[in-house]
């Protein structure tokens, strides 16, 4: 059954995915009430600059806000900022908010995103930061304002790497601690993970791999260093914990929806009739991969938000499957790292343009004779040439010859 044009749609989550859902509903002609609930007091804003331009101080807050007040007003949504969803009653079709209000819906969009994983022993210790919100960014920027600050980043994922690069660019002494033998090996494989580690080292950041953290050294309630399992201590004035995120699903525990590393949904992003999921919290069935998966990148939040709205309007039976070519990017130092596709760490990888040493290259991944992904450093035009090949399931041999000559 398609969504009635005057139906009430409640969107829980006012981040990128939630905003794109609301915008797409309006663009597609939905005239009914749309309620957009945001846990933060701020209007929807862009998160990637938090670890880059906003943290560096080269952008102001006006550059990260996704829509101006007049644009939000023109969208005609009931914006409920600073409120957290406390529960969902699927039978009654109601969402309970933290202020006691109960909202009834005809259709629901779950776009509650994710939150940083906490590290044991850090509660109440001054100088320990995570980075997810505007407040996190402002707090970290203030804590690292003195270029003499010794910064230790725990975790060499993309957020941790961007924080390390930005703070090194501001003149800080930066050390990155990674428990794995090679950073990002589970995402990019060992060869490309080592290339990313080399990027940090070439800019003067100390990257310590195989560095399992035992806890924090602190004095007077403030961090003084990071203790490793080998007994050594890495001195630190500020510590950033970047060990991943977890999807925000606690408010759905008694909802009847299936929760397993996110909200489990089908290929059309439906978790139930008239309930769709988008963004970091969505674990949908990707038919191209023949498995459920969850993606935490900006491009996916945008595309899923738009698709979730169209899927909701078409109805569960009439919606098309969501099967994208995943894409993400990361800006570090003066280098843009970009990835297309869904390679696995054990897939074959070949550099087809440039060199690893130059930090300007394109590499392609393949498995079973098929192209599975492409990674580029500061080669955006060449990298994007592989997107059509991934969309049509091209062979690895075709990919290897694309940039020949």
Overview of the molecule:
The protein is an alpha/beta fold and 405 residues long. It folds into three domains: 9-115 and 246-314, FAD/NAD(P)-binding domain; 119-243, 3-Layer(bba) Sandwich (FAD/NAD(P)-binding domain); 334-401, Enolase-like, domain 1. It is built from eleven helices and 27 strands. The chain has a six-stranded mixed β-sheet, covered by helices on one side. Strands 9-16-10-11-12 form a five-stranded parallel β-sheet, covered by helices on one side. It has a five-stranded antiparallel β-sheet with strand order 23-24-27-26-25. A hairpin with a 4-residue loop joins strand 14 (222-228) and strand 15 (233-235).
Cα shape: globular
Architecture of the largest domain, according to CATH?
3-Layer(bba) Sandwich
The class by helix and strand makeup works out as: alpha/beta
Q: What does the average pLDDT come to?
A: 96
Helix content: 10-25%
Radius of gyration of CA atoms, rounded to a whole number: 22 Å
What's the helix count?
11
Name the strands of the widest sheet in spatial order: 3-2-1-7-20-19
Q: How many independent structural domains? A: 3
Major sheet details: 6 strands, mixed
Which spans of ≥5 residues are poorly predicted at pLDDT below 50?
A: none
CATH class descriptor of the largest domain: Alpha Beta
Task: List how many beta strands DSSP finds.
Answer: 27
- The name CATH uses for the topology of the largest domain is FAD/NAD(P)-binding domain
What's the CATH H-level superfamily name of the largest domain? FAD/NAD(P)-binding domain
- Separation of termini? 53 Å
> Which oligomerization state do the chains in this entry correspond to?
single chain
């Amino acid at each position: 059954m398609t969504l009635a044009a005057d139906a009430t749609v409640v969107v829980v989550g006012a981040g990128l995915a939630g905003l794109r859902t609301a915008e797409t509903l309006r663009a597609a002609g939905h005239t009914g009430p749309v309620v957009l609930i945001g846990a933060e007091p701020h209007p929807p804003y862009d998160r990637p600059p938090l670890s880059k331009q906003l943290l560096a101080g080269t952008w102001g807050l006006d550059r990260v806000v996704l829509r101006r007040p007049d644009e939000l007003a023109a969208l005609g949504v009931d914006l409920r900022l600073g409120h957290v969803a406390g529960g969902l009653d699927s039978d009654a079709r109601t969402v309970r908010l933290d202020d006691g209000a109960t909202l009834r819906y005809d259709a629901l969009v779950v776009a509650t995103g994710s939150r940083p994983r906490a590290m044991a022993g850090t509660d109440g210790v001054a100088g320990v930061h995570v980075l997810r919100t505007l407040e996190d960014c402002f707090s970290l920027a203030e804590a690292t304002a003195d270029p003499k600050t010794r910064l230790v980043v725990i975790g060499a994922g993309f957020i941790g790497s961007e924080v390390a690069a930005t703070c090194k660019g501001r003149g800080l002494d930066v050390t990155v601690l990674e428990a794995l033998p090679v950073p990002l090996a589970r995402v990019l494989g060992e060869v490309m993970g080592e290339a990313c580690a080399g990027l940090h080292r070439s800019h003067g950041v100390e990257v310590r791999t195989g560095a399992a953290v035992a806890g924090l050294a602190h004095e007077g309630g403030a961090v003084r260093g990071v203790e490793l399992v080998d007994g050594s201590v890495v001195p630190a004035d500020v510590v950033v914990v970047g060990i991943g995120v977890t999807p925000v699903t606690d408010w759905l525990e008694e909802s009847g929806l299936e929760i397993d590393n996110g909200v489990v949904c089908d290929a059309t992003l439906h978790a139930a009739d008239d309930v769709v999921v988008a963004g970091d919290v969505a674990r949908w069935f990707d038919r191209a991969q023949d498995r459920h998966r969850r993606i935490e990148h900006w491009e996916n939040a945008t595309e899923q938000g738009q698709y979730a709205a169209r899927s909701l309007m078409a109805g569960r039976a009439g919606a098309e499957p969501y099967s994208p070519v995943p894409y993400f990017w990361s800006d570090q130092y003066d280098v843009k790292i970009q990835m297309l596709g869904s390679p696995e760490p054990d897939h074959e990888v070949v550099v087809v343009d440039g060199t690893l040493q130059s930090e300007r290259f394109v590499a392609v991944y393949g498995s079973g004779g098929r192209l599975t992904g492409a990674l580029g450093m500061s080669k955006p035009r060449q990298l994007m040439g592989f997107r059509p090949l991934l969309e049509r399931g091209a062979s690895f041999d075709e990919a290897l010859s694309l940039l020949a000559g």
